[in-house]
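job 3f2a | input accepted
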Amino acid sequence: MSDSLIAPDDPVQPVSPVAPGKPDGLGQSSALDDGIEPDDPAGTAMRLRARVTAATALLLTSAGQISDQQAREPSLLPGWSRGHLLTHLARNADSLRNLLTWARTGVTTPQYSTPDERSEGIERGAGRPAAELLADLEESAAALDEAAASLPDAAWAAQVGWGHAGWYTLWRRLTEVEIHHVDLGLSYSPADWPIAFATYSLEQYAAALEVARSPAVVLRSSDAPVVIRIGPPAQQPATTVTGPVRDLLTWLTGRSPGTGLSAEPTGPLPALPSL
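job 3f2a | predicted structure (275 res):
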């Protein structure tokens, strides 16, 4: 599971990626238009690298406008300041670079060397001046990109971490950058997420909710060709939730009460577990 799927102090618990479009056979998405093709690991990695680069450039622009005071103010992620978020994004880049080392060398190189490394690194760096936070974010992102640029094509199919192929490491980074950019609480919002990113992210979160204590619900996008379900596969969905794909993703990630969404039968939206 991507770090962005968890609360600040929870351990990282990944899920395996699902193929785009039909996590449960209900529908089809536009994720393939964004170049997510698991059968083409090297090509998928090349396209994802470009998307990570573009998303990182926007993030760095936002981070460059943060003052020292704003860095200490709360982010939209409960319990974390903006300094916590920016430090997390920098250390996340370092940790994902470990997985690319694993893919390149075949030598087991965990994302984090100890259970506490992630949280300790974030706490150590959260209180730094804004200029240091920005420089760290920029340097760590560049180092991750350099590692990706040097990875042989065959390595993108290598299994790393929890059974993820190497290319999925870049998807995880894209998720971190896009979702936590919103969490900074500045000018970047879910409305700025690329539609294909939001669609494939929705499918990944839906896959995570299959194994969580979630009610069975059908999710129907009103602006992307995707209909998927969440919750236990054996449970018959009692509710269909409809709305724009970005609003569905914002709700599923616990970043919205469900603004812009509607339920059938008419009533309140189902209560979702935290991821």
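job 3f2a | Confidence is low (pLDDT under 50) at residues 4-33.
job 3f2a | closed
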